Amino acid sequence: MTKTANQSIKRLACGTPVVSTEDGEPGTILQVCTFQRNGIDAWSYLVETTYGREIWHRGDLFLPAGQQA
Prior knowledge:
mainly beta; SH3 type barrels
């Protein structure tokens, strides 16, 4: 079972493997890119992929099965 980033995940740690919901591309979290208004929860992440660095919204990624947030 997979877990989307919107399901109780407030902020992912650097180095966390993730997968894009748009095209299934795997990546690794490098850092939080933007925060929500509360200043704690992540809104988007800088993600390292095979094709370089991309910014992914937290709703556009999920954790592979077996991964902890």
